[in-house]
Amino acid sequence: MGGFGTWQAAMDYPDRFAAIIPLCGGCNESTEICRINKLPIWIFHGTADSMINVNETERLVHRLEKCNGNIKFTRLENGGHGIQDIYERQEIYDWLKRQKNKNAT
């Protein structure tokens, strides 16, 4: 479920995560997207993705922006669906380490 699974898990359990990094995904519950507006989200999507159109991510970004979401969107020009090599970037782990789950007990 990749990116879709990441979005869905966050929507189902918004208080269990410090942050999410969905790749090339979407969310079927986009009408309730504001439930996760406080969750730090860094989204990646390739513009040449032939499996899931980048418009799916852009739609969610726009909805999150409307409810003051804590989002960062990285559009990978000419990137396809297989962009999992972004996990080799140290900056992703540095960003994740800075996130805190304020609801954790």
Brief sketch in words of this structure:
The chain is of the alpha+beta class.
Global geometry: globular
Number of strands: 2
Largest sheet: 2 strands, parallel
Q: Rounded to an integer, what's the Rg over CA atoms? A: 13 Å
Average of the residue pLDDT scores = 90
CATH superfamily: Alpha/Beta hydrolase fold, catalytic domain
The percentage helix is 25-40%
In total, the number of domains comes to: 1
CA(first)-CA(last) distance:
28 Å
State the helix count. Answer: 3
Elements, N to C (H/E): HEHEH
Query: Any idea of the CATH class?
Result: Alpha Beta
Poorly predicted runs: none
SS-based structural class? alpha+beta
What does this molecule look like?
Helix content is 31%, strand content 11%. The chain has 105 residues and is an alpha+beta fold. The protein has a single domain, classed as Alpha/Beta hydrolase fold, catalytic domain (Rossmann fold, 3-Layer(aba) Sandwich), CATH 3.40.50.1820. The chain has a two-stranded parallel ribbon with strand order 1-2. Helix 2 links the parallel strand 1 (41-46) and strand 2. The radius of gyration is 13 Å and the shape is globular. It starts with a helix and ends in a 7-residue tail after the last helix. The mean pLDDT is 90.
